[in-house]
Amino acid sequence: RRQRKLRVNHNVFLNLVLAVLYGMSDSLWSGTVFAAYLKRLGGGKNTPVGDVEAVNGLAVLFSALPVGYLADKYGRDKMCRAGGVLFVVTAILHAGTMSWIGTDETKLTESQRQYSLILLGTVMALWGIGGGIVSGPCQALYADSTPAGERSSYYHYLFIAYILSSIVGPVVSIILFQKLGDEWNLYQLGVIIYVGLGMEMVNALLLLFFDDKKALNEDEEENSSDNDNVSAINPTSSETVITASSTNSEEQAQLEEGEDLSAPLLSREEHNSQDHAGGATTGRRWIPYIIFFASLVFSIGSGMTVKFFPLFFKDEVGMSPSQVQIIYVLVPITMSLFSGVGTSLAPYIGRVQTTLILQFLGVGCLYGMVFFKTFLDAHPFLLVPVYILRTGLMNAPYPLIESILMDFVPKDERARWKSLESISQFGWCGSAAVGGYVSDKWDYSHTFFLTASIQLFGNLLFATLLPLVPRKEQALATASGAPSNSGLASTNSEEDSREQPGGLETVSDGSDSVDPIS
């Protein structure tokens, strides 16, 4: 029997493990359960749910760029470690606040209710900063550690790791709800939140082990597809080695004969000359900005409804806690299936084209929930499969969008762009306050209609990428015209830049840090 050693980059491995554990903890406490807790504490109103989310978004807004700047300047790994410390402090403060609130909201005076919501808003602001570190510096380091021309696949792995693990939270909460009585009260909701906060401690530990020195340098990013992800006799220190046995020598030979998907990129001088020669290449400088603004529009729309979908099923459809959580067991499975379809389809029709198809279908499903609700009042459970389909379609393109962004952002600016991307969460959370007001004044279907209309506009904005992004992803690795500033990574390695003084330095929902279920 011959031994086969598969190489996995240290930071890629840590990010994938973190995605699994973060998905478990996040899905357990921060989605349906915490939204119901806030509504119960707020006297049955949706407005407090939206207000607390808005505070969370403000924290992301004011911390995103400083976090990205510090990560680029002093190191992504240092910011990840700071995030680990922040996770521990925040989890302790959160648990302490809930212990002070107690388990019977009827014993609280109005002023105590308001004070409780302020304290929880403060805690959620800290969680927002911590989540920004996971989706910013951590994922920028993930991009630094993956080869150009293959990032769609790597982001698909990250997405699947987070999404499939987020099934665990609802499953655990179903078991706990069944044991506790399956009621929407502070005691039962609080028990589940405490379990989720305990799991956050493990995430904090993982954040301490990221290492900038184990990222790929520029040449490795460009050429590693020749020999990455296949067998190696002497793996480098930046890799975690997974050993497997093989009885088939022909299979081993096939693994060693990697297809050349990633020939060397052009030099910066060649890029610059082509920038002057052709407008198409220069136009690609706008790609990160278009993605950012389209994401911001989508987040504004999503924020109006995401925290209110489970409350809609609770209040208007009349579902029990366990029944609502069953929905959120099925949602990640649907997202994973559609993500696989999208990643498989993209090489044939293009990443932008695939994203547009999936998201237009998702917007159509949400319009369907609005228009068919009137006819389904007698059978409201029929809205559940429409919602599951809609959520799967809308979130499936995440790996494709992330790979496009990372392909067209210089390596030494990725942490800032990832952190800037997290500012779009402010649109998400800021509009949650509007969604709470609208759902209290009218009903949930009004917020659904607003979300669908805003996301339709966001999809049209994203469509402006069609003439800018090459249809074939591998073409970027052999590109003759990648942009030099907002395009593919520069020729200076990040390791070199860090050797100099002040050298350079980085996660969706039920919750968002690969990104929230939108």
Could you list some keywords that capture this structure?
2 strands, 518 residues, two-stranded antiparallel sheet, 3% strand, mainly alpha, 22 helices, single chain
Description:
The protein has 518 residues and is mainly α. Helices cover 67% and strands 3% of the residues. The protein has helices spanning 10-29, 32-41, 47-74, 76-101, 110-144, 151-165, 168-180, 186-206, 218-223, 249-256, 268-277, 279-283, 287-303, 309-315, 321-349, 351-373, 383-395, 398-407, 414-422, 424-441, 444-462, 494-499, and strands at 2-9, 239-246. A two-stranded antiparallel ribbon has the order 1-2. Helix 3 packs antiparallel against helix 4 (76-101). The longest helix is centred in the N-terminal third of the chain and has 35 residues, at 110-144. It is globular. The chain starts with a strand and ends in a 19-residue tail after the last helix.
